[in-house]
UniProtKB/TrEMBL annotation:
This is Putative methyltransferase. Keywords: Methyltransferase, Transferase. The keyword Cytoplasm does not apply. One of its GO terms (biological process) is methylation. Pfam families: N6_Mtase. It comes from viral metagenome. Coiled coil: none annotated. Residues 83-181 form the DNA methylase adenine-specific domain.
Length: 220
């Protein structure tokens, strides 16, 4: 068994509660935003968890190359996805093909805003980053990911953090244009910062539903 898989198996053991995605959300995304060196002891749980995820990701990248979907591959192996309810991930080679065909070889100098309304664990984001890195050597885009599933929203956000991808990751319903929570990831050199966005912040940058047309009841 590869080391990255062994680490994730240990982190997702049924003996450990709450589930991994909830621990990542609370200990890393929520608490980690307020981290300071002076208060490091208060963040020891999140620091330990982040260290294990970085170790797993480093091993995964050594085995499978840059911008791979470690969390998506784990979910597929673990059987956590529910295809009967329509939950499945686009095969990574298909995501890579679509990214290349959509973006082309001549990428614009201007920073692009790219949206995936059903992002899953962020495979189109990862393949977009891979294409930009191999074509221009820089990630000159901001990728917007939306998914209604909490677990894949968390794993997509972690994929962005671990791979240093500029993104806004939204937990919400892209059809209803209703958003619960979002995390913006901001790479600064080799360090990735992140910022939790409240509903007001999300609504200021995300598409909004059109105003409802008046009905007869409005005039009576």
């Amino acid at each position: 068994m590869e080391k990255w898989l062994r680490i994730l198996n240990e982190l997702t053991s049924p003996r450990i509660t709450p589930r991994l995605e909830h621990r990542i959300h609370q200990e890393i995304l929520v608490k980690g935003e307020e981290y300071t060196h002076e208060k490091a002891d208060a963040y020891s749980t999140g620091i330990e968890l982040m260290g294990k995820l970085i170790m797993a990701h480093h091993n995964y990248t050594e085995k499978h190359g840059a911008f791979g979907d470690m969390f998506g591959d784990y979910l597929a192996l673990d059987g956590s996805l529910n295809p009967r309810c329509g939950q499945f991930l686009t095969p990574i080679h298909i995501a890579e093909f679509i990214a290349k065909m959509t973006l082309g070889d001549k990428l614009p100098d201007k920073t692009q805003r790219i949206l995936d309304p059903v992002s899953g664990t962020g495979r189109f984001m990862l393949m977009t980053a891979k294409h930009y890195a191999s074509t221009t050597g820089k990630l000159n885009f901001i990728f917007f990911n939306i998914d209604i599933g909490f677990s894949v929203y968390v794993y997509c956000t972690m994929n962005a953090i671990l791979n240093g991808i500029p993104s806004v990751n939204v937990w919400g319903d892209s059809l209803k244009m209703e958003y619960t929570e979002a995390v913006a990831t901001i790479p600064i050199g080799k360090v990735v910062m992140w910022k939790m966005l409240n509903k007001e912040g999300i609504n200021s940058i995300m598409p909004q539903p059109p105003p409802k047309a008046p009905t007869l009841r409005d005039f009576t």
